[in-house]
Amino acid sequence: MKWLTDVGLGLDDDTLKLDRTNQQWIDAGSRLRDAVADQFVSRVAGVEQIGSSSVIGLLAKPIVDIAVGLAADQELQPVHALLEDTGWTYRGDAGPNGGHIFVLEAKPWHRVAHLHVVAHEGEQWRNYLRLKDLLRQSPLARARYESVKRQLTNEFGDDRLAYTEGKSTVIGLLIDEAAAWARADRDTQER
Description:
By secondary structure, the chain is an alpha+beta fold. 50% of the residues lie in helices and 21% in strands. The protein is built from 7 helices and 8 strands; from the N terminus they run αββαβββαβββαααα. It has helices at 2-5, 23-40, 76-85, 123-137, 139-156, 160-166, 168-190, and strands at 11-12, 19-20, 46-50, 59-60, 64-70, 89-93, 100-107, 110-119. The strands form 2 sheets. Strands 1, 3, 5, 6, 7 and 8 form a 6-stranded mixed sheet that branches. α4 (123-137) crosses α7 and α5 packs antiparallel against α6.
Protein backbone atom coordinates (compact mmCIF):
# COMPACT_ATOMS: atom_id res chain seq x y z
CA MET A 1 0.00 0.00 0.00
CA LYS A 2 2.91 2.35 0.65
CA TRP A 3 3.61 2.42 -3.08
CA LEU A 4 0.24 4.17 -3.54
CA THR A 5 0.82 6.81 -0.88
CA ASP A 6 4.44 7.34 -1.95
CA VAL A 7 3.21 8.84 -5.23
CA GLY A 8 0.79 11.21 -3.47
CA LEU A 9 -2.38 9.15 -3.63
CA GLY A 10 -4.78 9.22 -0.71
CA LEU A 11 -7.31 11.56 0.82
CA ASP A 12 -8.98 11.73 4.23
CA ASP A 13 -12.74 11.18 4.00
CA ASP A 14 -13.56 14.62 5.41
CA THR A 15 -11.43 16.57 2.91
CA LEU A 16 -11.60 17.50 -0.74
CA LYS A 17 -8.44 18.25 -2.66
CA LEU A 18 -7.76 18.27 -6.38
CA ASP A 19 -4.37 17.85 -8.00
CA ARG A 20 -3.23 17.25 -11.55
CA THR A 21 -3.07 13.60 -12.49
CA ASN A 22 0.52 12.67 -13.24
CA GLN A 23 2.20 9.64 -14.74
CA GLN A 24 3.02 8.26 -11.28
CA TRP A 25 -0.70 8.14 -10.41
CA ILE A 26 -1.51 6.44 -13.68
CA ASP A 27 1.29 3.92 -13.19
CA ALA A 28 0.15 3.21 -9.62
CA GLY A 29 -3.43 2.83 -10.84
CA SER A 30 -2.28 0.42 -13.55
CA ARG A 31 -0.37 -1.60 -10.96
CA LEU A 32 -3.44 -1.72 -8.71
CA ARG A 33 -5.66 -2.65 -11.67
CA ASP A 34 -3.27 -5.49 -12.56
CA ALA A 35 -3.21 -6.70 -8.95
CA VAL A 36 -7.00 -6.79 -8.85
CA ALA A 37 -7.13 -8.56 -12.23
CA ASP A 38 -4.60 -11.13 -11.00
CA GLN A 39 -6.77 -11.82 -7.95
CA PHE A 40 -9.75 -12.64 -10.12
CA VAL A 41 -8.13 -14.27 -13.17
CA SER A 42 -11.25 -16.15 -14.36
CA ARG A 43 -13.78 -14.84 -11.86
CA VAL A 44 -14.54 -11.54 -13.63
CA ALA A 45 -14.88 -10.51 -17.27
CA GLY A 46 -12.81 -7.31 -17.05
CA VAL A 47 -10.88 -4.89 -14.85
CA GLU A 48 -10.15 -1.32 -15.97
CA GLN A 49 -8.62 1.80 -14.50
CA ILE A 50 -11.17 4.62 -14.86
CA GLY A 51 -11.94 8.10 -13.62
CA SER A 52 -10.08 11.40 -13.61
CA SER A 53 -6.99 9.90 -12.01
CA SER A 54 -6.51 7.85 -15.20
CA VAL A 55 -6.26 10.94 -17.43
CA ILE A 56 -2.84 12.64 -17.46
CA GLY A 57 -2.99 16.31 -16.50
CA LEU A 58 -6.65 16.31 -15.45
CA LEU A 59 -7.63 17.77 -12.08
CA ALA A 60 -8.61 14.85 -9.87
CA LYS A 61 -8.93 13.71 -6.31
CA PRO A 62 -5.80 11.71 -5.49
CA ILE A 63 -7.76 8.46 -5.44
CA VAL A 64 -7.51 5.69 -8.04
CA ASP A 65 -10.76 4.38 -9.52
CA ILE A 66 -11.05 0.81 -10.78
CA ALA A 67 -14.03 -0.83 -12.50
CA VAL A 68 -14.55 -4.57 -12.19
CA GLY A 69 -16.94 -6.03 -14.76
CA LEU A 70 -18.99 -9.10 -13.93
CA ALA A 71 -20.25 -11.27 -16.79
CA ALA A 72 -23.97 -12.05 -16.75
CA ASP A 73 -23.37 -15.52 -15.31
CA GLN A 74 -21.00 -14.35 -12.57
CA GLU A 75 -22.14 -13.75 -9.02
CA LEU A 76 -21.15 -10.86 -6.79
CA GLN A 77 -20.65 -12.85 -3.57
CA PRO A 78 -17.35 -14.61 -4.47
CA VAL A 79 -15.94 -11.32 -5.77
CA HIS A 80 -17.16 -9.48 -2.67
CA ALA A 81 -15.56 -12.05 -0.35
CA LEU A 82 -12.23 -12.00 -2.19
CA LEU A 83 -12.10 -8.19 -2.20
CA GLU A 84 -12.76 -8.02 1.53
CA ASP A 85 -10.16 -10.75 2.15
CA THR A 86 -7.57 -8.60 0.35
CA GLY A 87 -8.23 -5.37 2.26
CA TRP A 88 -11.09 -3.71 0.38
CA THR A 89 -14.05 -2.43 2.46
CA TYR A 90 -17.57 -2.69 1.07
CA ARG A 91 -19.45 0.64 1.14
CA GLY A 92 -22.72 -0.48 -0.41
CA ASP A 93 -24.61 -0.60 -3.67
CA ALA A 94 -24.78 2.77 -5.38
CA GLY A 95 -26.89 1.26 -8.16
CA PRO A 96 -26.70 3.23 -11.40
CA ASN A 97 -24.42 5.78 -9.69
CA GLY A 98 -21.43 3.50 -9.32
CA GLY A 99 -22.42 -0.13 -8.78
CA HIS A 100 -21.15 -1.98 -5.74
CA ILE A 101 -18.55 0.28 -4.12
CA PHE A 102 -15.42 -0.90 -2.32
CA VAL A 103 -12.71 1.34 -0.89
CA LEU A 104 -9.06 0.70 -0.15
CA GLU A 105 -7.64 2.68 2.76
CA ALA A 106 -4.00 3.36 3.64
CA LYS A 107 -5.16 4.01 7.20
CA PRO A 108 -8.66 4.38 8.68
CA TRP A 109 -10.74 6.91 6.77
CA HIS A 110 -7.89 7.70 4.32
CA ARG A 111 -8.87 6.35 0.92
CA VAL A 112 -6.38 5.58 -1.81
CA ALA A 113 -8.73 3.75 -4.19
CA HIS A 114 -12.35 3.15 -5.09
CA LEU A 115 -13.49 0.00 -6.84
CA HIS A 116 -16.81 -0.23 -8.68
CA VAL A 117 -18.27 -3.68 -9.43
CA VAL A 118 -20.69 -3.42 -12.35
CA ALA A 119 -22.02 -5.59 -15.18
CA HIS A 120 -19.33 -6.13 -17.81
CA GLU A 121 -20.40 -4.47 -21.06
CA GLY A 122 -23.40 -3.03 -19.21
CA GLU A 123 -24.29 0.65 -19.43
CA GLN A 124 -22.14 1.68 -16.43
CA TRP A 125 -19.12 -0.23 -17.76
CA ARG A 126 -19.46 1.38 -21.20
CA ASN A 127 -19.97 4.82 -19.67
CA TYR A 128 -16.84 4.52 -17.52
CA LEU A 129 -14.72 3.64 -20.55
CA ARG A 130 -16.37 6.17 -22.87
CA LEU A 131 -15.83 9.00 -20.39
CA LYS A 132 -12.19 8.07 -19.85
CA ASP A 133 -11.58 7.89 -23.60
CA LEU A 134 -13.32 11.22 -24.24
CA LEU A 135 -11.35 12.98 -21.49
CA ARG A 136 -8.10 11.55 -22.83
CA GLN A 137 -8.88 12.68 -26.39
CA SER A 138 -10.68 16.01 -26.02
CA PRO A 139 -9.03 19.10 -24.51
CA LEU A 140 -12.42 20.85 -24.70
CA ALA A 141 -14.14 18.11 -22.67
CA ARG A 142 -11.33 18.21 -20.08
CA ALA A 143 -11.64 22.01 -19.81
CA ARG A 144 -15.44 21.83 -19.33
CA TYR A 145 -15.09 19.13 -16.69
CA GLU A 146 -12.33 20.97 -14.82
CA SER A 147 -14.33 24.20 -14.83
CA VAL A 148 -17.21 22.45 -13.07
CA LYS A 149 -14.83 20.74 -10.63
CA ARG A 150 -13.24 24.07 -9.66
CA GLN A 151 -16.63 25.71 -9.22
CA LEU A 152 -17.89 22.87 -7.02
CA THR A 153 -14.71 22.85 -4.94
CA ASN A 154 -15.08 26.58 -4.32
CA GLU A 155 -18.79 26.24 -3.58
CA PHE A 156 -18.75 23.17 -1.33
CA GLY A 157 -15.30 23.19 0.25
CA ASP A 158 -14.63 19.79 1.82
CA ASP A 159 -18.16 18.41 1.30
CA ARG A 160 -17.22 15.49 -0.99
CA LEU A 161 -20.78 14.21 -1.28
CA ALA A 162 -22.06 17.57 -2.53
CA TYR A 163 -19.06 17.80 -4.87
CA THR A 164 -19.73 14.34 -6.30
CA GLU A 165 -23.46 14.99 -6.71
CA GLY A 166 -22.69 18.36 -8.32
CA LYS A 167 -20.59 16.69 -11.02
CA SER A 168 -23.43 14.43 -12.15
CA THR A 169 -24.90 16.83 -14.73
CA VAL A 170 -21.63 17.54 -16.52
CA ILE A 171 -20.66 13.86 -16.36
CA GLY A 172 -24.00 12.95 -17.96
CA LEU A 173 -23.42 15.48 -20.75
CA LEU A 174 -19.87 14.24 -21.31
CA ILE A 175 -21.04 10.61 -21.42
CA ASP A 176 -23.68 11.56 -24.00
CA GLU A 177 -20.99 13.29 -26.04
CA ALA A 178 -18.71 10.26 -25.71
CA ALA A 179 -21.51 7.92 -26.83
CA ALA A 180 -22.12 10.13 -29.86
CA TRP A 181 -18.37 9.98 -30.68
CA ALA A 182 -18.46 6.19 -30.36
CA ARG A 183 -21.49 5.95 -32.70
CA ALA A 184 -19.87 8.25 -35.25
CA ASP A 185 -16.65 6.25 -35.12
CA ARG A 186 -18.53 2.97 -35.51
CA ASP A 187 -20.51 4.38 -38.45
CA THR A 188 -17.29 5.54 -40.11
CA GLN A 189 -15.70 2.10 -39.69
CA GLU A 190 -18.74 0.35 -41.13
CA ARG A 191 -18.61 2.38 -44.36
